[in-house]
Design brief:
Length: 97
């Protein structure tokens, strides 16, 4: 259980960095802020993927697989976009990519 949490934190940090590159604009967070939102997003993405029955984002154990990476990145993008909407920060683009 603790290994799963650590894996999602590491994966979330990576996903947050990727989400920062995918979501246009600057919410004033910087790299560290987006990594923190990515960690939150990894948990959100894992929860949503499990809720929707899309694959098994946790891989059935401690492993990180392609589905867990996709879940983390999707969750991170959602969290970064929602954060931007809630705080009212404007973006230079209309959304991801």
């Amino acid at each position: 259980m603790i290994i799963d949490i650590i894996a999602w934190i590491v994966l979330g940090a990576i996903a947050g960095y990727i989400a920062g590159m995918l979501v246009k604009g600057d919410e004033g967070l910087g790299v560290v802020g987006k990594i923190i939102l990515g960690i939150i997003g990894a948990f959100v993405g894992g929860f949503l993927f499990r809720l929707l029955g899309i694959g098994n984002p946790t891989g059935g154990g401690d492993q990180i697989n392609i589905m867990s990476i996709i879940a983390a990145v999707v969750g991170a993008v959602i969290v970064v976009v929602v954060y931007g909407m809630v705080t009212g920060n404007r973006r230079t683009g209309s959304g991801p990519i």
